[in-house]
Amino acid sequence: MHDEFARIEWLRARFELHGADERLLVGIGDDAAVIDLGKPPVIVTVDTQVEDVHFRRDLISCRELGYRAFVAAVSDVWAMGGLPSAALIALTLPARLSDHEFRELIEGLAEAAESTRARIVGGNLSGGELLTVTTSVFGAPVHEPVARKGAEPGHLVYVTGTLGAAAVGLALLEADGLDPEQTNHFVERWKRPPLNDRAATGLAKIASAAVDVSDGCLQDLGHLCKASLVGATLRADSIPTENSHDSVCEALGLDPLLTALAGGEDYELIFTAPASNEAASLGTTIGEITAETGVRVVDTHGALVDVQRKGFRHFS
Ligand SMILES: [Mg+2]
């Protein structure tokens, strides 16, 4: 049971032993939990970024790390159709971290808190071998909370922004060679996840289900479909990417479509909804929900694209 998702399934079953709790509106296994502690209910989520697992100190500054960790955590609140209001930060600080680096980390967190309008209200400091940043975010739904379950056959699949740019940015940092003029915005896209408060507010009223893209579009949409007991068909030619995505991917030896669909760390929002201008105004239509389970990708002729063969590892 070393698989992250198998462990989450086990945890969900373990804590269901506590029995039904009418205050628990959304429990383990979604982007965030929703608890009815009064009106409105509270959305709560936690995310940890670990040195050498989620980031390398030589590839990101402390300030950038703080900003990135915070927005990535808030993304789960936006994915519930909510807006953040407060956050707690727990830091593990290695002895080698200087006071300057510590203050830079805090400035990055503070900038993200201001940008997302979530006040940092407390936290915890601890020593340790590796730098870790744990962010708990509390928020409230704009309307009703939007969970991963609720998508129905015939609903369209929308995504905000573009896909794959963060994965390209990280690959560029690791490759350390290509012309920075052409590629800087990809690196920025990895370091600075998008602010999706407007999309979250918009989707709150119209979405049947939503998830944010942390592990890659195919995987995260797969979680949404599994929770909704449906499947999806995506159109390869409708996947939104940055202008020079294909050429930069090719220069890096990456498959452009697979990088967009499976790259991860985009922190864009995928949501499903009946077709409407309002939904289309929030993002790009990339496919449709189907009764048949599983996520498929088709080309312009409707023929299946074999993403498994392209190297996509299916976890569920
Ligand atoms: Mg998420």
Oligomer classification = single chain
Average pLDDT across residues? 93
Distance between the termini: 13 Å
**Shape by Cα distribution:** globular
Please describe the biggest sheet, giving its number of strands, its sense, and whether it closes into a barrel: 6 strands, mixed
- SS field, number of helical segments: 10
Gyration radius, rounded? 19 Å
Description of the structure:
With about 325 residues, this protein is α+β, with helices and mostly antiparallel strands. Helices cover about 35% and strands about 25% of the residues. The chain is built from ten helices and twelve strands. It has helices spanning about 5-15, 60-80, 100-115, 165-175, 180-190, 195-205, 215-230, 245-250, 255-260, 275-280; strands at about 25, 35, 40-50, 80-95, 120-125, 130-140, 155-160, 210, 230-235, 270-275, 285-290, 295-300. The strands form two sheets. The chain has a six-stranded mixed sheet, with helices on one face. α2 runs parallel beside α3 (about 100-115). It starts with a helix and ends in an 18-residue tail after the last strand. About 45% of the residues are buried. The mean pLDDT is about 95. The structure holds magnesium ion. The site of magnesium ion (MG) has 6 residues, from β8. Magnesium ion (MG) binds near residues 76 and 212.
